[in-house]
Specification:
By secondary structure, this protein is an alpha/beta fold. It has one domain: Type I PLP-dependent aspartate aminotransferase-like (Major domain) (Aspartate Aminotransferase, domain 2, 3-Layer(aba) Sandwich). It is 36% helix and 13% strand. The protein has ten helices and eleven strands. A seven-stranded mixed sheet has the order 1-8-7-5-4-2-3, sandwiched between helices. It has a two-stranded antiparallel ribbon with strand order 6-9. Helix 2 packs parallel to helix 8, helix 3 crosses helix 4 and helix 3 crosses helix 7. It is globular. The relative contact order is 0.20.
């Protein structure tokens, strides 16, 4: 007999940390204490290299998603430019662009994947002539229109930043999130599939961006030619990251196994992924109202919060018509008979 996930304790939030890693984490922390170097040390480099191998891009770690986003926006001189942004996202995305001195214009989403619509993106790009755009991968899967949006940006000289804050463990025909744009920003905040408590990562193939990002996170040192501030990640945080990136594929596989073996039969009106796509299942999203839900990914779109008078019918529909089924990583829980 299959056990319902909520009767197995899955309804209660759990950080995606595996207790089997506890002793190794403490050993890494002891090494930091012994090293007398608590920031910008060997573990930071190890975490960046590990993430880079997984993401197939070079990586620079930050103390937050915001720091990584601001570094990218500063490098690409977003100040004074228009940035296109989906309204169905966390407020961090438009707020980062505004903090960088840009003007934000919102784009509608698709009902099928909750991510930015290429059709509306093309309309808004023609209308507003943006210099940059954010593409946000919502809920753990990759935006269905990523190929079209990325191709349009390349053809029209628009810098594309992928917001991968939800996309840990995802892939599409083996390709990782963050590899379509000019840069991508990840979050390791407490609710994420893998977490370091707080933290972020910038990935890119652009060597100049990576170098300016390293300066940006450390006040612009050594010559202060980059107008940065302190967004450094500590060695203690990097230790969590080293373990997280090694465990991430296992966490995503475990969540997908529970989704397929337990949840799917009860939730036919769920997000249906394209062939070849795997979600990291940050959220298990359904379009039927359910009794036990962790709420919605976002219940109030950014354009409503910021009082933009723009018509985004799909975004407004999505805000009212999706729910999230509890699904948290617990490797020792009983999910089957």
């Amino acid at each position: 007999m299959t056990t319902r996930p909520w009767t197995s304790g899955f309804a209660e939030f759990a950080i995606g940390f595996d207790d089997r890693d506890r002793s190794r984490l403490h050993a890494l922390w002891d090494g930091v204490l012994d090293s007398q170097r608590w920031s910008d040390g060997a573990l930071l480099t190890q975490f960046e290299q590990g993430w880079g191998r997984w993401n197939c891009l070079s990586a620079v770690a930050f103390s937050s998603w915001s720091g990584a986003a601001l570094a990218a926006l500063a490098h690409f001189e977003a100040s004074g430019q228009t940035v296109l942004c989906p309204s169905n996202t966390f407020m961090a995305t438009p707020l980062a662009a505004l903090r960088a001195g840009a003007r934000v214009e919102f784009v509608d989403c698709n009902r099928e994947d909750l991510c930015m619509s290429f059709a509306d993106f093309e309309r808004k790009a023609d209308q507003h002539r943006p210099g940059l755009a954010f593409l946000v991968h919502i809920g753990g899967h990759i935006a269905f229109d990523v190929e079209q949006i990325a191709a349009y940006c390349r053809a029209n000289g628009i810098i594309l930043l992928e917001d991968c804050a939800h996309a840990h463990g995802a892939s599409w025909d083996g390709r990782r999130p963050g590899t379509w744009g000019d840069a991508a920003i990840w979050s390791f905040a407490p609710t994420k599939t893998v977490s370091t408590g707080e933290g972020g990562m910038l990935v890119s193939a652009n060597a100049d961006l990576l170098e300016s990002a390293r300066r940006f996170r450390d006040y612009g040192k050594p010559d202060y030619s980059t107008a940065g501030l302190n967004f450094r990640m500590t060695e203690f945080t990097a230790a969590l990251g080293i373990i997280a990136v090694e465990r991430m594929d296992e966490i995503a596989a475990w969540k997908n196994d529970v989704a397929r073996s337990v949840l799917d039969a009860s939730h036919p009106a769920r997000i249906a992924l394209p062939k070849g796509m795997t979600s990291g299942l940050y959220k298990y999203i359904v379009f039927d109202k359910i009794e036990l839900s962790t709420g919605r990914v976002y219940s109030e779109p950014c354009h409503r919060i910021m009082r933009h008078s723009v018509s985004l019918p799909n975004t407004d529909w999505v805000a009212e018509n999706h729910w999230c089924v509890p699904l948290y990583y617990r490797p020792h829980s009983e999910v089957g008979s």
